[in-house]
Write a structure and sequence with these properties.
Radius of gyration: 14 Å
Helix content: 25-40%
Strand content: 35-45%
Distance between the termini: 16 Å
Number of strands: 4
Number of helices: 3
Strand order of the largest sheet: 2-3-1-4
Order of helices and strands: EHEEHHE
Largest sheet: 4 strands, antiparallel
Structural class: alpha+beta
Length: about 100
């Protein structure tokens, strides 16, 4: 079955990568998994204080967007967002295809 992959790239405030990673692992990833997201990879660029990762769901772009909409509006995600460290300098998300 085809899958849709979203690349996510975050510029994190210097000195905040560990706080961000702890929040992501403890608060966000379990909720994403519950909604059917799969983490394709996660990388850290410590020198530039960037966190780069990709998530996917089986199916089309419309399937991804439907799941993401339910995830974003869920009480669990809203509660996790309240715990997010104030660390984002920029966020870039885009859909990518396998080459």
């Amino acid at each position: 079955m085809a899958k849709t992959v979203q690349l996510r790239r975050y510029q994190i405030a210097p000195g905040m990568l560990e706080d961000f990673r702890a929040w992501l692992n403890q608060e966000v990833l379990p909720i994403r998994a519950k909604f059917g997201f799969h983490v394709e990879f996660m990388y850290v660029d410590n020198k530039n204080s960037e966190f780069i990762w990709a998530v996917s769901v089986p199916g089309s772009l419309n399937d991804f967007l439907e799941i993401e909409n339910r995830y974003d509006g869920s009480e669990e995600r809203l509660a996790a967002g309240l715990k997010r460290p104030d660390c984002f300098l920029s966020v870039d998300t885009r859909f990518v295809d396998e080459s």
